[in-house]
Design a protein that fits this description.
The strands form 2 sheets. The protein has a 4-stranded antiparallel β-sheet, with no helix packed on it. Strands 4-3-7-8 form a 4-stranded antiparallel β-sheet, with no helix packed on it. The chain has 170 residues and is α+β, with helices and mostly antiparallel strands. 36% of the residues lie in helices and 25% in strands. It has 2 domains: 13-82, no CATH class; 88-160, Immunoglobulin-like. It is built from 2 helices and 8 strands, in the order H-H-E-E-E-E-E-E-E-E.
């Protein structure tokens, strides 16, 4: 298959069989009992299986050395595609003495969010809209900590300071 001669010589099977028998009788060897065409066919079958084995070995060899190039980028790609989006505060605004916080990201536990004042008082949200990602708290005149848990044990911690806030009605 890979190393073929350019010039192929053809020989009649009967002539080849007679030549083989003459060579064996000249060398005082026993006469060949297997027909010459069977010997040629056996050689072709052995050569074909050998060529298939060479091709299969080459393919396995190439795949073995190329597999790290294929596996590493796929694992990085899967990690990026299936990883949850990080939780982020995208918008905060005050309207009618209500502080609204808009979050984006995956695995945010909106119902477990709370505000804690400096005196230790826990204030639950006024409203939670997990579909829009909005949590609303009462607007305080004192400093407070806002905690928004994210699944996996993480928590978004915001420090609320009411100084220099625009949009507050007085």
């Amino acid at each position: 298959m890979f190393f073929h001669k350019k010039n192929r010589y053809e020989l009649d099977m009967n002539t080849a069989n007679n030549a083989l028998q003459n060579i064996l009788s000249t060398c005082n060897q026993p006469v060949n009992t297997i027909p010459f065409d069977k010997l040629v066919l056996r050689k072709k079958i052995n050569a074909a299986s050998y060529n298939r084995l060479i091709v299969a070995t080459t393919v396995i060899f190439v795949l073995t050395f190329l597999s790290p190039l294929i596996i590493v980028p796929l694992s990085e790609f899967n990690g990026k595609v299936f990883a949850p989006a990080p939780a982020e505060l995208t918008l905060d605004y005050v309207e009618n003495n209500v502080l609204s916080l808009k979050f984006t990201g995956d695995n945010i536990l909106y119902d477990e969010a709370f505000m804690e004042t400096l005196s230790g008082e826990i204030i639950e949200p006024l409203s939670v809209d997990s579909a829009r990602g909005v949590i609303s708290f009462p607007f305080l005149t004192e400093e407070a900590n806002i905690y928004v848990p994210v699944s996996g044990g993480e928590t978004i911690h915001l420090l609320f300071t009411p100084d220099n806030v625009t949009g507050m009605t007085q």
